[in-house]
Each structure stands twice: as structure tokens, then as C-alpha cells.
Amino acid sequence: MKKLLNDPADAVADSLAGFALAHADLVRLSPAPVFVVRAGGAVTGKVGLVSGGGSGHEPLHAGFVGDGMLDAAVPGAVFTSPTPDQILPAVQAADGGAGVLTIVKNYTGDVLNFESAVELAVEEGIEVASVLVNDDVAVEDSLYTAGRRGVAGTVAVEKIAGAAADRGADLAGVTAVAERVIANVRSMGVALAAPRVPHVGRPSFDLADDEIEVGIGIHGEPGRRRVPAADADAVTEMLLTPVADDLALARGERVLLFVNGMGGTPLSELYVVYGRARRLLEERGVTVSRSLVGNYVTSLEMQGASVTVLRLDDELEALWDAPVNTAALRW
Amino acid sequence: MKKLLNDPADAVADSLAGFALAHADLVRLSPAPVFVVRAGGAVTGKVGLVSGGGSGHEPLHAGFVGDGMLDAAVPGAVFTSPTPDQILPAVQAADGGAGVLTIVKNYTGDVLNFESAVELAVEEGIEVASVLVNDDVAVEDSLYTAGRRGVAGTVAVEKIAGAAADRGADLAGVTAVAERVIANVRSMGVALAAPRVPHVGRPSFDLADDEIEVGIGIHGEPGRRRVPAADADAVTEMLLTPVADDLALARGERVLLFVNGMGGTPLSELYVVYGRARRLLEERGVTVSRSLVGNYVTSLEMQGASVTVLRLDDELEALWDAPVNTAALRW
Amino acid sequence: MALDADWAERWVRRTADAIADAKDELTELDRQIGDGDHGENLDRGFKAVVARLDDAAAEPEPAGERTVGDVLKLVATTLMSTVGGASGPLYGTAYLRAAKVSGRPQIDPPAVVAVLEAALEGVASRGKATVGEKTMVDAWHAAVEAAEAAAGDGGSEVDVLRAAAAAADTAATATIPLVATKGRASYLGERSAGHEDPGARSTALVLGAAMAAALSGPTPADPRSAA
Amino acid sequence: MALDADWAERWVRRTADAIADAKDELTELDRQIGDGDHGENLDRGFKAVVARLDDAAAEPEPAGERTVGDVLKLVATTLMSTVGGASGPLYGTAYLRAAKVSGRPQIDPPAVVAVLEAALEGVASRGKATVGEKTMVDAWHAAVEAAEAAAGDGGSEVDVLRAAAAAADTAATATIPLVATKGRASYLGERSAGHEDPGARSTALVLGAAMAAALSGPTPADPRSAA
Ligand SMILES: Nc1ncnc2c1ncn2[C@@H]1O[C@H](COP(=O)(O)OP(=O)(O)O)[C@@H](O)[C@H]1O
Ligand SMILES: Nc1ncnc2c1ncn2[C@@H]1O[C@H](COP(=O)(O)OP(=O)(O)O)[C@@H](O)[C@H]1O
Ligand SMILES: [Mg+2]
Ligand SMILES: [Mg+2]
Ligand SMILES: [Mg+2]
Ligand SMILES: [Mg+2]
């Protein structure tokens, strides 16, 4: 299996080393335990924002460390949650005295490891709040699942909570904004081809040349159902419809439409999906007032895309528009 | 062959339609003949910048239309130069009265079609200059080739010439800056897997699982040589060494190091390549003072990367740093 | 039997059919040593040409007799505005120059040779290529030499075109061992040897269609003849 | 023959070997209904455990006799800080709770049962999972029930562990038809049926190693015994 890597065991470390060198103006890398923190360290008096999760989703999360977004990011092994002994020092490094919000994608592993770290941080006297991102409508939030997964909607949570922290909101305020984003953001994804985890040496799942996986997560898990390959318009409808239905979007509402690439699909195709998703929203009487198209929450070189919709109001829109300066998101 | 597309014949049009909707604040799309122009149209008194080429290299070129970079971009069919009847109106739309510079990647098709269009534009009384980007050291610039190809270095030419135009340089001045970038930028690329052109239905070339193509272009052409797969450090050396040698970099010089993804390789791997390329430059006594890592000049979902080095001086560095606001490059 | 504008139109329509039939073959040749779009490029262009010919056929006959050059000029401008790539401007220039020397209702054997010479000169000057560089110039050049010889021997229009088509076909095959020094295939260096040049092959198809059009009279598929 | 800290160390080292051997199999199970990293995760963790045991073995013997709990605590903290994912905290908690009830140089059959009960309680409370949700809880639960029965029948340490290991193995296999309602496999819904749960399988390996370590005495591969 060909990859631009050295020893697969060093994949994450090598990549982070390059990342930190390329963006030394924005971030600093702690090599052991591994975490990434903004170049200047914690901002005194500002609520610190920390996120993290398995590697393989780049630019998430390290690519969002910087002004107006995260203060620290904690990357685990590929597709594997980081450990508490990485998360704890990242929380400490992000604490500017106003407390820290950890933004956790809802996966058992992420939840458990962050839980332990937060417990330890609180013991050390840091005020810590946590939010769980669970935007993936492919998974029902029921007794029969680990709950909905956190996927691309995480970008919106990190961006908007980051802007709120930048504006000087206190920990309760930043947490409330993050919760409001979580309550109003939904996603659904599709895979045309599986990613290949460096140390595994083969695709994470096997898809025939006329099949696609609908309702995939971002860890190479198979999706909810395997269906015959279809054209972009049809596939986009499979993604957008459950998202818009779950949000119960009403005519006249306005949204952020985010088409996210899974890593191995050309940007040009993401814009095809975007065009169709936008038309479908407009047919529902919904206005797309903000847009994001690109590879932000990836699954290595998985081919596919996800559609994320965030219901906007004046405050969320203003926070989305607020300046941000990170490796992967900047305006 | 699965892709997020509708009718392959509409791939470019569908994608551009989505692109123009997503970035309506930055660009406007002319549907027939097809070209993309900045939302406000030409800037009076500013030299206009126009580039173009085959589609399939997104975000190049349309993703670089906006403040501080291109005024118009002309996308052809996938991997096929646009026609003069697209280029001419784009040149007209970019003309703010101070003349237009066309930035052409050196491929026979691009050269011939731009040549015809420029001839027509000049006939219509527009002052037009042209530069040919030919940064790919994989191809010798000799009697026995069509000359070196233009590849990822194009981003640097467009960014820096765009900044010069923004600063108010006249057509001769902008052209001179662009030529200076071209004289000082070199690239080399590698492919691990070939792209799949929508209407072709199979990979552009066939690579065994233990082979890579070194010295590839961005149109799915095979490379200069096929070699056994190697690790990232070894591959990076195959790319960086000829680039640095061709530039004859001396100790104490400083450069922009740009690691460009071909579309289907995870960002994390690009940072591995970046880290190694940077170390190799530092071993030569060369300082990396500016960096860019990401998918900017792609070849659909080709897996692989290219390494670009631009020799910097105070002026080029300042122009690189100047503000830019486009869909794909923003600071 | 001199060749007229109807022949030119039959030529072009037959070319469109031949290119459509060979589309995948041409694309595969280009995939080997280029970027895999030559068949698609020409097919898009000639389909557009046919569409314009159909439009023209649907309109009232213009005053004045249609010349061979009228048809070829339509082909030239259509290819230039729809093909792109290297082959768009090259074929476009070929047909444009050919149109310039054929602005008459009928052309005789020496005029057929002049048409081919003009096309060759257009391609070679536009592409700055000479014989032996493994491009379409190789096929055009061989065609011109053979056509000149056939016309010199007093051959008919059909004889001239038959010689041209056969020579172009042979020349296309003869590009296989060559190392390309122009166009995209030149990037491959030595690796370009062993593959036929797609542009030389398409040139052979174009000239084969010219001969076939001269051999056949108007066909029912031709809207003008049906009118 | 009560089980001591050396037994615990042999247990852990044998577990590391068993996991290393089964790494690809565990990863493949996880690839089917999870994210394909379970083997890699545990292998990374247990390799780190062995490295720390080696470090400890190289150091001068600490004062006071080593307890079973000392070894299990080292396993717990090492897994927690090196495994990540869901299984890191779950196994980490299992060993931590087990360590808490085994802070003695020797443990007898009822104490072995208590160790297993504590581990089960740790996994179940941490993962908020109950029996039948197609997780490692299924294997731990079956092991505890079997161990309790064996101890109740007056079995030896080896009897207790043999019963636990056999039950865990059976329970792991019995996860195959289940639909997962916890962990990553639950995302698959009905599609999770038909595949064995990787965590239940690794639990069976862990308990198999415990029994094997009890059956065997100190081995030459064990640096402590070589010292
Ligand atoms: N400089 C040149 N002179 C003459 N013919 C050329 C030249 N460059 C390319 N060609 C011809 O064009 C053909 C390729 O056309 P096409 O594939 O449509 O364009 P592109 O190379 O831009 O993809 C080649 O096979 C060759 O015959
Ligand atoms: N909530 C839970 N309770 C108990 N065990 C669980 C739970 N979630 C997951 N597991 C166990 O963890 C195993 C997966 O571990 P692993 O693959 O290492 O972590 P991850 O799922 O984070 O990739 C599952 O096979 C299952 O046995
Ligand atoms: Mg995992
Ligand atoms: Mg082409
Ligand atoms: Mg071609
Ligand atoms: Mg797993």
C-alpha cells in the first residue's frame, strides 16, 4: 500500500512535526505527550478551547488552532482517541484563567478519554466545561446506539465557540453558544471508496465498483447502508434530505451550507454537490446565507463527501463571520 | 467508475455553477463562453490578470480569482486548454484600462489558444502582455521537448503578480515581477496513483502497487520515470534535490517552500513531505522563510505531491505576504 | 469530376462519423503518451461542426453558390471555438488555411493538392513542428507528398485523395517507433517511443474521410441532398 | 498454590504475546464492524506495559513485597496513557479496579473471583454497558459467572481461571449474531450482526493468558525469574 509516509508507526509524529514547522507563526507542538497549542500559549482572561480526537481527519483539529478558534488540539493515533495524559496538559496549556471548554466528538473513546482528563484537570483546579458534538443524522440518537456521532459539524462548533471566546464571553457563555451550534447543526456523509489506515495496509471496507456507502462516519467505519452508485444529484439528495428533515427547517430560515470532502474526492466534485444541495434547500424555501466547501474533516484519502447544515441566526452568523486565523480556516 | 458527478459532459459546468454560488461574494460566472471573473468586474486603472487552462486542477485557477490575485480565470474541459473564444471575453472583462497580463502554463495547447486570444484582444485595442510559467524541472527545457511544463509554481506567479498589480504597478512592472517569479521558481512532482478523467472511465495511467511515477505533470501524463515505491523521505529527496539543484540555491538564501497535493493524498502526508524537504533545504544552508502546504494545483484525485521552491528576496516576500482574498488563498 | 462544396460537407460529416467511431481508440493512444483526451476533444469539435452544418442546412439557401472554402471555414472556426487543447488550434489553423485557397464552387486535382499543402503549412507553422517529431505533421506531410505525386501523374481528385489518405495512414503507423520532440508526448522522452501519435492517427482518419466522400455521391444522410 | 505478583506479571506478558499474535485478527474483526484499530491499539498498549515491566525489572527491587495489585496498577496506568480509543479507558479501568482489590502479595480463589468482578464492574460502569450489547462486557460477564461457580465448587485458582477463560471464549463467539447497541459497532445497526465483537475476543485472550500464566511456573522469558 503506497503512501507518502516513512514508518507507519511515525506517521502522526512526522506529520505533526512538519505541520508545526510550516505554521510556526500559529502553533507550537508538544512532542511528548503530543498536543498542539497556539504559538503564544493561553490568552490571559480568555476562555480556552480544546478539542482533539483520532488523527487522520486533517486539518481537524490542529489546523484550527489559532486566533478565533481553538487554543489547543490533541491528536491521537490514526482513528484512535488521544489519551488523558495528552489531553490534560493541553487543557492546562489552554487555560488562561477563565476556564476551558473541551469540544468532544461523540465517540465512546473520545468521550471516555476526555472524561478522565477533565476529571484530572478539575482536580488541579481548572474550571472545565465540555460539549459533545453529535451532528451525524446517519446514526439515530437512541437507546440502541452510542448516540449520534460527531462529524463535520465540529468545524462550526469550534469556529463559532472560538469567536465567542474571542469576544470575551465567559465559560458559561461560550459553552452555551457551543451547545446552540450543536443543537442546530446536522450532517450526513457518503463514501465512494474507503480510506487506508497506514498500519492496516488495506482499505477499511470493501466497496464494489457500483456501490457506495451512505451514512458513513469519519473513521472508515462502514455506513448505515450500501446502495448502488448513483449520480451526484441523487447522492446529494440522500444526504441533504435527512439533514434538513432532522433540523425541521422551515421556509424563510437561513443556514450555513457546508460541503465537506472526505479527503480523496476532487474539489470540483464537492462544488457539484454544493450546487445541488443549495438548490434543494432553496426549494424548501431556505436561504443559504453562508457557505463552506472543501476538505476540513477528512478520513485519510476516503473518497466521498458530507453535507452539513447549520441553522443560523444573527448571533451565530456574526460569530461565523468573525475573524479567524488558523492553518486551515482564515478570514 | 464512481464519482460525485452527473453527466460527465456537464462536470465542468456543474462544478463551476456550484463554485460561483458558493463564492458569489468573490466571483461571477459567465456561462457561455465559460469564464470566471471577480465579482466587481475589472478594477479601473489596475492591470488585469487572467489565467486559465484545462479543468481538473482545482482550485487552480478559478479559486484564485479575487482581491490581490487573478481578475479572471478561463477553465477548459478536463485537462484541455480553453478556447480563444472563452479567453478573449475574459481578457476584456479583466481589462480596467491599464492592460492585461495573461499567465499561461507552458503546454502547447494553452500556448496556442492563449496566443490566438491575445492576438484578437490586441486587435480590439487592449494592451496585453503574456508570461509562460515553466517551473517543472522534470522536463528539460531543450530542443527535444515542448519545454518545461507549468505546474504548481503557477500559484506563486499568480499571487505575487496579483499583489504587484494591486500595488499599482503598470503592465510592464507586473510582467517583470511575474517573469522574476518564473525565473526563480521550480517544481517536481510524484504520483502514487493516477487520476481518472470523468469521460474516460479508467485511470490515466496504470501503476503497480509497488511503483510510483516520478516527474509527473498535472494532466495525468505518465512521468519521466517509473521507480519502485519508496518511503516519504526518499521520495521527497527525489523531488527536492533536482529542484534545489536547478535553482542553484546557495547557502544563506531564503525561499518559499510549497508542498502541493495532487488531490488524492491526505494532508497529513503532505506535512511529512514538507518536514523532510525543509530539513533538506536547511542542510544546504537555505532558510525556509515562507511556507505553503495543501492541495492547490491538483490533478483530479491523483495521489501524490509536488515540491516547489521559490527563491525569495525582500520584494517577492513582501508581495507574497500582501493581502489576498480568494476562494482558495486568503490572508 | 471536380469536387464541390457538397463534397466538402460530405467530407466533414464522414470525418465526424469516423472520429466518433474511433473516439475511444484515439483517447487510448493519447492516454499512453499524452493526457487521454484527443478522441474526446475531436469528437466534441466535429459534433459541433455537424450541428452547425445542420443549422445551415435548415436555413434558406444563401444567395450565391457555396464554395468549398465556405464549408472549410465553418469547420475551422467551429473547431477553434470548441476543441481547445493543442489539436483545436492546430486543426483549426489547418482548415482555415485550406479554406483560404479553396474559395471556389469547385476544385480540381491541383487545387486539392493546394488545399492539403495549405493545411500542412498551417499545422506546421502553428505548431512549430517539422517532419519526424511524432506529431500530426508527419501524417499531413506524407499526405501532401503523395498527393503532389498523384496529381503530377495526372490523377483524378479521387486518385489524389486516395494517395493522400494511404500515405497518411502509413505515416501515422510510422510514428510508433519515434521519440516525440513536440507536444505533450515530448515530456515522456524515450518513453514516448513504441506508441502511435494520436494526432497523426486522427489526420489519417480525416483524409480517409475525404477520399470516401469523393468516392461516394450525395447520400440520403446528407440533409442538403434530401432537400 | 495461591497466585502472586510474579503470576500477575506472567499473565501480563503472556497477554502481550497473545495480543501481538492476534493483532491482525483483532484488527480485522474491528475492520468489519468498527474502525480497524483494536489489534493495533492493544498491541501498542501491551508492548508499552512490557517495556515498563522490563524497566521495573532492571531496577533494584523496591522495599516490601510486590503485590498483585502493584502489577495490575502498572498495567492500568500504562494502558490508559498509551491505548486511547474506547478500549484504552475501558481496559484501563478494568485493571485499575482489579488492582484495588488485589493489593496483596498472594490471592486465593475467592480473591481471583473478586479481581474479575472488579474488572467487570469497571468496564460496565465506565462504558455504561450491560450484557448483550455486543461488547467486551459480554465476555467479562460470562467469565465472572463461571469463575464464581468454580470458586463456589471449591475450585483452585487454576480451576477458577480455566472456567473464566473458557466462558469468555464462548461468550466472545456468542457475540456474533448480536446487534451492537454500544460502541462504534452500534452505528452499523443491523449490519453489526454476523461479526464477532473485537473487544470480547481480546477479553477472551486476556483471560486465556491468565489461566496459562497460572498453569505455568516462572518461565525463562521472564527477566524476574532469570534474575
Ligand atoms: N507542436 C505541435 N505541432 C504539431 N502537432 C502537435 C503539436 N503538439 C501536439 N500536436 C498534436 O496534437 C496531438 C494531441 O492533441 P490533443 O490530445 O487534442 O491535445 P493536448 O495535447 O493539448 O491534450 C498530438 O498527438 C500531436 O499530433
Ligand atoms: N460502551 C462500551 N462499553 C463496553 N465496551 C465497549 C464500549 N464501547 C466499545 N467497547 C468495546 O471496545 C471495543 C473497541 O475497541 P477499540 O477498537 O480499541 O476502540 P474504538 O472503538 O475507539 O476504535 C469494542 O469491540 C467493544 O468491545
Ligand atoms: Mg478507534
Ligand atoms: Mg489535453
Ligand atoms: Mg491530449
Ligand atoms: Mg476500533
From TrEMBL, chains A, B:
Keywords, alphabetical: Transferase
Gene3D superfamilies noted in UniProt: Dihydroxyacetone kinase, domain 1, Dihydroxyacetone kinase, domain 2
The EC designation for this entry is 2.7.1.-
InterPro entries xref list? DhaK_1, DhaK_dom, Dihydroxyacetone_Kinase
An annotated Gene Ontology molecular function: transferase activity
The record places domain DhaK at 7-331
Recorded superkingdom: Bacteria
Name of protein: Dihydroxyacetone kinase-like protein
User: Could you tell me which species this protein originates from?
Assistant: Promicromonospora iranensis
UniProtKB/TrEMBL annotation, chains C, D:
Where, by residue number, does the polypeptide cross the bilayer? none
Q: What Pfam families does this protein map onto?
A: Dak2
Q: Can you give the residue ranges of the DhaL domain?
A: 6-212
One GO MF term, please?
A: transferase activity
Is this entry keyworded Kinase? yes
Q: Which InterPro entries match?
A: DhaK_L_YcgS (IPR012737), DhaL_dom (IPR004007), DhaL_dom_sf (IPR036117), Dihydroxyacetone_Kinase (IPR050861)
For this protein, the Enzyme Commission number is 2.7.1.-
Which keywords belong to this entry? Kinase, Transferase
Q: Which domain of life is it from?
A: Bacteria
Q: Does the keyword Transferase apply?
A: yes
Mind telling me what this protein is named?
A: Dihydroxyacetone kinase-like protein
Could you tell me which species this protein originates from? Promicromonospora iranensis
